[in-house]
Write a sequence for this structure.
C-alpha cells in the first residue's frame, strides 16, 4: 500500500514540477500579462496533465487570472476534433440472403482457406475515402478481438481478386473490409488468409500468454492484464502494477518466457463450459465477454487462460522473446 501511495505521489509531483516550470517560463516571457490565455491553460492541462484549478490558483497568487471562457472553448474544440476524427458515414446493408441467416460462421481455428458466399455488403465513407464491408456465410478470417488484430488476405473468383484489408466485429457480426466491391456478389469465392502474417500473429499471441504468467511469477499474483496488442510485428502488454518494473525484473521475465520457449511446451486448447473453466483456475482476460462455452489455452503447466484467439501449436514456434523498456509499463 505504501508503495502504491508513494508512486502516486511521485507521479503527481512530476506533473506539478513540469506545470510550475512552464507557468514560470510563461510569466517571465509575458511579465505584463494580467490575463493568462485560455489556450496556454489548456496546453498545460491537455499536454502535461496540469489541472486547470492549479493554474488558476497560481495565477491568483501572482495577481493574475486565467481566461476561463477561452479554456472552455479550447476544450470544446478538442472534443470536436476527436469526434470528427472518429466520424464515419455507413450506408445501409444490402442483404443477399435472409437477414436472419446473414451471419458469418468462423472456421479459422482449423482452416485458413475456404469457399464462401457474400451474404451482405455496405459502403462506408470515412475521412473522404470509401471502403466496403462484406459479410460472408462463413469465414476463415479472424476478427480483431482480445488484443489480437484482424486477419488480412484475399477472396478471388475467376480472374478477379479482392484484398481483405482488415477483419473486425460489429454487434457480434464478422465484418471484412476492402477498398472495392466485388463485381459479382452471387457466386462462390475462394478466401485465403495471409498465412505468413497469421503465423507471426499466432507466435506473438502465444508469447503474450507466457509473458503474462512470467510477470505474475516475478512481480506478484496481483498483476493482471489491462489491455494488449498482438500483431505480426510485436506484442504490447498493459498490466496493473504499482511501480515501474526494474531492469532486473524485466530480465527475469524475459528469461522465464524464453525458458518456456526452449522447453517447447505445447499449447493445449480445450472447449468447455465457463463454470468448468473457472474451476480449472483459468484466468479471464480484461474487458472480454465470454459465452456459456469458452476456449481454455494451457501452455504446459505454466499458463492457463481463457482465450478466443489463434495460437501456435507449441511455444517453440515463438522462437525468441525480447522485452522493451521504451515506455513506463505501469502507465500503459
Amino acid at each position: 500500500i505504501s508503495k502504491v501511495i508513494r508512486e502516486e505521489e511521485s507521479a503527481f509531483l512530476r506533473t506539478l514540477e513540469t506545470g510550475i516550470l512552464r507557468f514560470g517560463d510563461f510569466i517571465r516571457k509575458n511579465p505584463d500579462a494580467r490575463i493568462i490565455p485560455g489556450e496556454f491553460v489548456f496546453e498545460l492541462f491537455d499536454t502535461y496533465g496540469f489541472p486547470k484549478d492549479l493554474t488558476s490558483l497560481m495565477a491568483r497568487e501572482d495577481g493574475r487570472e486565467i481566461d476561463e471562457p477561452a479554456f472552455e472553448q479550447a476544450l470544446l474544440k478538442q472534443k470536436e476534433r476527436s469526434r470528427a476524427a472518429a466520424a464515419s458515414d455507413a450506408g445501409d446493408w444490402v442483404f443477399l440472403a435472409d437477414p436472419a441467416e446473414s451471419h458469418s460462421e468462423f472456421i479459422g481455428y482449423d482452416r485458413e482457406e475456404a469457399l464462401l458466399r457474400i451474404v451482405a455488403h455496405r459502403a462506408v465513407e470515412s475521412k473522404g475515402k470509401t471502403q466496403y464491408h462484406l459479410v460472408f456465410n462463413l469465414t476463415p478470417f479472424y476478427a480483431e478481438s482480445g488484443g489480437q488484430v484482424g486477419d488480412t488476405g484475399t477472396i478471388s473468383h475467376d480472374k478477379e481478386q479482392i484484398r481483405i484489408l482488415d477483419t473486425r466485429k460489429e454487434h457480434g457480426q464478422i465484418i471484412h473490409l476492402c477498398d472495392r466491391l466485388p463485381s459479382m456478389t452471387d457466386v462462390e469465392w475462394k478466401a485465403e488468409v495471409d498465412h505468413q502474417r497469421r503465423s507471426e500473429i499466432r507466435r506473438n499471441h502465444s508469447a503474450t500468454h507466457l509473458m503474462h504468467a512470467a510477470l505474475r511469477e516475478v512481480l506478484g499474483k496481483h498483476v493482471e492484464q489491462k489491455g494488449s496488442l498482438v500483431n505480426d510485428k510485436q506484442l504490447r502488454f498493459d498490466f496493473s502494477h504499482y511501480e515501474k518494473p526494474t531492469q532486473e525484473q524485466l530480465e527475469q521475465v524475459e528469461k522465464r518466457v524464453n525458458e518456456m520457449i526452449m522447453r517447447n511446451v505445447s499449447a493445449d486448447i480445450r472447449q468447455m463450459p465457463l463454470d468448468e473453466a473457472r474451476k480449472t483456475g483459468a484466468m479471464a482476460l480484461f474487458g472480454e465477454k465470454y459465452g456459456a462455452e469458452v476456449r481454455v489455452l494451457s501452455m504446459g503447466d505454466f499458463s492457463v487462460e481463457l482465450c478466443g484467439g489463434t495460437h501456435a501449436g507449441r511455444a517453440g514456434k515463438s522462437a525468441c522473446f525480447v522485452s522493451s523498456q521504451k515506455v513506463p509499463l505501469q502507465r500503459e
